[in-house]
Amino acid sequence: MTDITSSSHLDSECIDPQNGVYIVRKSIHGASTPLHVQIKIWGEQHRVSCELNECQTNKVLAWRSGLLSCQCVHLQSVSYCKTFLTSPSLTEESLKEMVKSKWFGQDKIKQYVDRQKLAQEENAPLSVESKIGIPPSKRFISVYKPNISYYSILDRVMVSYDTKKNLWHCPCAKTLRSCTHKYIAKWHLFQVNPELFRKVQSTESAEEFQATAMEESDESETYPTKDVSKVKSMVEYILMNKKLPSTIPNHLRLSSVYKEFPQHLIPDETMCYHCSDCTFLSDPVCITREAKILTTTGIVQGGSLLQHLFYFNYE
Ligand SMILES: [Zn+2]
Ligand SMILES: [Zn+2]
Ligand SMILES: [Zn+2]
After folding, report:
1. Does any domain span residue 312?
2. 134, 166: one domain
3. Are 194 and 267 contained in the same domain?
4. What value does the mean pLDDT take over residues 243-272?
5. Which of 88, 98, 104, 254 could form a disulfide bond with 108, CB atoms 3.0-4.6 angstroms apart?
6. For the chain, what is the domain count?
7. 105 CA to middle of ligand 3, Å?
8. CB 159 within 8 A of CB 35
9. Alpha-carbon distance 307 to 288, whole Å?
10. Which residues make Cβ contacts (< 8 Å) with residue 244, sequence separation at least 6?
11. In this structure, are 205 and 235 located in the same domain?
């Protein structure tokens, strides 16, 4: 499918007109989780992105061969979008009900309510249910996500709930681990569709409940990224930009008696090196507390290494 026209395009739904965010069916045929695209060509920061890795790669290739205005089928299909979806206002009462039914502990309520406030501050819908995913036995909830991350270049993730198998899935976490996004989606369906859970409750395993108690983090779970093209890009960047010069300038040399090494290593970069439109990287995220510094006389251990998350958005 290459030609997108008014009679032949992928179904789409607008979920956030203010930020130009849409959900688009991945392909015309077959079961698939719908994906997010953003077309925001107003305001200070323009953003035209499809969250599918494949589309980002194609765009870079097209761009290199001089096709500056090449858009993927998902972005093109949005021109024919006629559906506007809204976010229900989820209540604290539903969360309290969920605590009673042992979905999670009382202490989580604040965390989820805070996430809701954050979405409000950003004028982004907290959760929206898509109707274009296939099969219909799966429910697809688009959930707001405040941080840029490896698993999505946009501010949203698509959480799915398989009503037949009673299984939840979020791209940020492995199947049996929980995450804030899944819980926001649960909150949504629990409030909007309580009859779905009359029988099953939250039948995820006891292990998962414990795993949740151990605390989930939205960012750290996928570091380092498993995406080969991103790893390659990161390594190339380090290779090209982080080499030691063969002659080290005098002012950078420390005498061996001067053994004060930094406790925290934070990269200097604050902007994305891929983007021409000044995209900021995230705040530093701690990658390890056992960083080592290799010196000419030995190895210094026990520092912490922080990293700005690379944000891939080839605009
Ligand atoms: Zn696309
Ligand atoms: Zn998640
Ligand atoms: Zn970028």
Report:
1. no
2. yes
3. no
4. 68
5. 104
6. 2
7. 38
8. no
9. 9
10. none
11. no
Q: Which ligand is nearest to the CA of 70?
A: 1
Closest-CA residue to 128 (of 185, 208, 78): 185
Q: Which pLDDT score, from 0 to 100, does residue 217 have?
A: 39
Considering the domain architecture, whether residues 54 and 150 belong to the same structural domain is answered as yes
Residues contacting 236, CB < 8 A, separation 6+: none
Shortest-distance ligand to the CA of residue 57: 1
User: What pLDDT score was predicted for residue 176?
Assistant: 62
| Predicted local distance difference test score (pLDDT) of residue 160 | 95
Measured in Å, residue 90 CA sits from the centre of ligand 1 at 30
pLDDT at 264: 67
Instruction: Starting from the CA of residue 26, give the closest ligand.
Output: 1
2, part of any domain: no
SS3 240: helix
Tell me if 315 is assigned to some domain: no
Measured between alpha carbons, how far is 278 from 69 in angstroms, rounded to an integer? 19
Of the three residues 221, 254, 283, the one that is the final residue of a domain is 221
pLDDT category at 2 given cuts 50, 70, 90 is low
Residue with tokens 């790893």: 231
Q: For residue 74, how far is its CA from the centre of ligand 1 (angstroms)?
A: 4
Q: Which of 177, 193, 221 is the last residue of a domain?
A: 221
**pLDDT single digits (tens) 198-235:** 765 444 444 344 333 333 334 334 566 778 888 888 88
118 φ/ψ angles, rounded to the nearest 5 degrees: -60, -45
pLDDT at 210: 38
Measured in Å, residue 273 CA sits from the centre of ligand 3 at 6
> Domain range spanning residue 206?
12-221
Q: Are 51 and 141 within one domain?
A: yes
